[in-house]
Structures are given as structure tokens and as C-alpha cells.
Amino acid sequence: MPGFSVISPRVPEADNQSVAVHSALPDSPSSATSSVEDVLTAIEDKAADLQPRPPIITIMGHVDHGKTSLLDAIRNAKVVAGEAGGITQHIGAYQVTTDSGAVLSFLDTPGHAAFTSMRSRGAQVTDIVVLVVAADDAVMPQTIEAINHAKAAKVPMIVAINKIDKPEANPDKVRTDLLQHEVIVEKMSGDVQDVEVSATTGQGLDELLEAIALQAEILELKANPDRAAEGAVIEAQLDIGRGPVATVLVQKGTLRQGDIFVVGEQYGKVRALINDKGERVEEAGPAVPVEVLGLNGTPEAGDVLNVVDTDAQAREIAEYREKAAKEKRAAAGAATTLEQLMANAKADENVSELPIVVKADVQGSAEAIVQAMEKIGNDEVRVRVLHSGVGAITETDIGLAEASGAPVFGFNVRANASARNTANQKGVEIRYYSVIYDLVDDVKAAASGLLSAEIREKFIGYAKIQEVFKVSNVGKVAGCLVTEGVARRSAGVRLLRDNVVIHEGTLKTLKRFKDEVAEVQSGQECGMAFENYEDIRPDDVIEIFEREEVERNL
Fold it and tell me: The domain 54-220 is classified under which CATH number: 3.90.740.10, 3.40.50.2000, 3.40.50.300, 1.10.940.10?
């Protein structure tokens, strides 16, 4: 695959090679690599074994130029509305069959600059890039970024000029703009295909799919389906009820239920494979995206999945990699809140690193935040991520933050009760975010001392859902017990499931017995219903918060 170097699964051979090599491991990870990971040595496929495979297409472009809506139009799916800040937070992968019968695999990558890391990975597992440019907006910073990624990965590009139905659409401006970046479309007598489309009306979608199918034919893409599978993780998350789940794009071989595999620092046995339509499948061949269940932990997006022979082998490689990675990580410290960190940095010129701890709902978001953090800073100040992970903020995270004097950032996740209490006792600051821009902007503002008035969230209470009732004219009502603080009708609310934020909004009703009330105290029972949201279940937790404006100073 263009620009994507991976290690292939081992050839099944004498199993005496798969013995646990730990006892004989040298001290330095590099010299040990060969002995532990040589079961994954690359094997070249014979030309006779190769069979045609579907192309993998990545949709790229500037934020709000309509990448997701274009993909949804292609899938005839409903528009994805509820994304914070209009960003696709989680990469998806879908297969589409064109009218002429060609199968295409699409990757949908998030569109904000902070997600460059995921997007560049998207370009690495990809065969064709569809560059979406809005006809009413032309070429923007992230359009240029996407062009550079595609060029760096040496991947052919097709330009989709979107929003062509708008009265202010000017497709020719897009074509002229692209010339400055050495993208010469066919209309300008170049060799890059361009198609005018509208995700809203559906205009030009068939032409776009045919253009992709044509480009794929030229590439003559092939893979060997009859070998141990190898693939790339596009997204990974900790799913409530299903455990760690990875979206894997199979690149070589066929991944089957029951296969034992190693992926990054994790390993597992395929418990179930789920395709892009949500159906369980027995196997997935080259260029097929599937969700894989049966991992022992959450891998990182971009990790390579290799199928191996035995459980012992998989465990050993994973443990070896984890040990090597741990040796790389070390902690450093200085203060507790962002403001203090900055005050210290200003007071003491030697404090050049600001430690922070990051927890997010999915691996891709965590990685994107870390990448964004690495870019912040100058000669005096650097932001250092001590630890980033997936899932709720735990006591361990608070312990690490306290030892290093770092604040903890939660992106679409919350601290569990014991972590909250520990943080309060130890004076560790926890900040919650649902839009990456805000998180990055806050760190930047603190790092440059530009601390304008801050809108701070104040948690005023928590309630636990005990039962869910259907009430006519109202919809689903949650029978709750206010476990701490107070529930207020006027306040903002969030629904948490396993400490991950499922929904944020306002209350439609707050009732005590039969009466509508303004607030309910801790220890009392009440009924709550959300505005425009009904996916509530017993044991969910409702977080009640108010926002206040605080002047910030260093």
C-alpha cells in the first residue's frame, strides 16, 4: 500500500520458534526486537496468489466543506447532526457498491486541523483520496493540508466540488485555486479528475463513484486473501458492554472469527466481527473494514494487527512491546492548576515543561489532543503530556497528576466518584471538554498568558437513574435519586453512561411527586425528562451543572 510500511504475519512454520523468549531477553529493547518479533517477519506474496481487491478511499477536505454529508449521501444515510463543533469525532469506515457493481471502501476522517494525525494515517492506508472542496468557499488551509498528505503518500486524487447547488457556488474559482497547489484538473487540461456534486440534492454522486471506480481500475489493486490476516486499526474505543472494540481495515489475508492476533501493545482472539452495517460476519477479506471484538485492551489508531499462531506468542509480543513503550514514558512535574503552571513558568525560567494528563472517549481523539499539545509552546514553555488514555478518569490518573503537579483534561469523559474525591483532597484540577478547539485554546491561552474571562462550569449535583417510565405527552421520564448536591430545573444536564458523556442538553421537566419544581435536594427522589432526547437507561448518571464567568489572571 502506498506510504504504509507494516510487518506481515509470520509464515506458519516450526512452532519451536514461538517459545517464550523472556528469560533470554537482552536488556535493551532494540536488540530484543528480533528475537520476540521475528515471528512477524514479512513474507512476499506470489503474483499467482494475488486477487483483485476493492479500493480504499479516504475523504478529505476542509472542516464544514461537507465530507461527512457527502459520505452520508453516498450511503443514503441520514445526516450526522449531533457532532460537537460539527467535527466527525470518530473515524468510520463503510463499503459501498456502485451501480456498475464495483465495491468501494470509504474511510471518513475528522476534519479539524487538530486531527491532522488521524488524517495522515487515513492517507497511509488509502489508495485514492477524494478531496472535497466547497464550491462557495474554495481552497482553505485544511484543503491544502489534505493535498500535501495525498502527495506525500503518493496517492491519486479526485476532486469533488461540493455544494454545487448553492446560488453562490463558483466551481471555476475552485479549479483556478487548485492550480496554485499544483493540482491541475481535467477541465484545466490536467490529469486530476474533478466532479461537481451536491450532497444535499444528490447531483453528481453517480459520476463521482464512477470516477473512483475508473481510477481504481487503473491502479489494478490486488491482495492475497489466503494468508494470515494483517490490517490497520482505524479507530479504537472502550465500548460499554462490549469491552475494547477496534475498527480494523484488513489489508492482506482474511481475518476470521477465532483468529489469535496481536495489535500494538494489545492482543486477543477474535470473538466477533461486525461489518459497517452492524451485522455479524464470519470473516473479512482485503480492504474490508470490520469492528473486532475480543481484545484485552484498547489499541491505538494506526496500530498494525497481525494474526499469529498461538495465544502465548500474541501475549509475549504484546507484553514485550508494552514494556518497551513503558521504558520510553517518564514523568516530570511542577504545579497543579494551569494558572499555577503558567505562573511558575513565568517566575522560574527553567520550568520549560508543563505536564498534563489527558483522557478521552476514543483513541483517535486522545491521539489528536496529544499531537495538538506537542505543537504548543516556544523557547520558554513546552506542554508535556505525561499520560493519555481512553475511558473514565481514575484514581491512578489523579495520582500521576498529583505526583507531577499536572492538571487532568477529560474529553467527553468524566472522573469516577473516587477520582473526584481524591482530586478534591489533593487539589488536582480536572477540566472537562467536548470540543477539541476549546481544550487546545485553553492550553494556548494559559501558555501565552492571555487569560481572558473564563466560562467555568460548576457542578451542582449528580442524580442516578433508578427506573425509566413512559409518560404520554412527555415521552420517557427518568425516576432518579439525587445522590449529591442539588438538581435544578434551569441548569444544564449531561447524561453519563460508565462515566462517558452520552448527551448534553437541558431538562424538559423536573418533578417531585406530581408537582413541577425548581430544584430537588440531595437524598430526594424526583422525575426528570430531557429536551429532545430519550435514550435513557437505569443506572445512568445525570450530571447537573451551571456555567459562571470568572476573570482569569496569572
Answer: 3.40.50.300
